[in-house]
Amino acid sequence: RDDPEGVIVLFELDRDYAVDIPEGEDLAFPVVVLPPHAPQRFGPPTGNVWTVKSDAQNRRLQRQVTYEPMNGVEIGRSGFADKHVIDRVVNTGIAWHEGQLFGLANQLLGVLTALALIATSIMGVLMWLRRRPQGKLGAPQAAEGKPVRGLFLALIVAGVLLPLFGASVLCLLLLDRILVAIRGRRVPG
Asked: pTM for the complete prediction?
């Protein structure tokens, strides 16, 4: 028979059989079964093979197996260990960041880190409110003389390497300039 792409297929695996093949593979959930010439989320179509792959969040558990479309014989297998070392490092970092690398322990560590950052922010504001002089902003006096060049250089380098940080620093600098222009002078103390 002719398929829509014009490739002549003499015999094709039954779809149910193709789905049953990977049951013995013990692939991490979710498992995606792609027929020949199926589009993928990323990259080119699968080609003239059945492709069974794990799409697990923990990228270290992802594997892909390809089968001959005529008889179901395995013709290829790839997994995490087959990737380039940089790809393995990046994917391990992503799984760690997403809380998938060590399961529940990884997720609890992420929640504790977020709670600690929130508590630190709240406590910083509370300590500033308690210790600032009455009726004053409580900001430190501007340094006399030349500013430290190393600090500005470090801020520029960090802003280039971390664009969101750089944008935040620029916003704070702009806000400071606007407040100085509105008040006409720096607020003492």
From this structure: 0.53
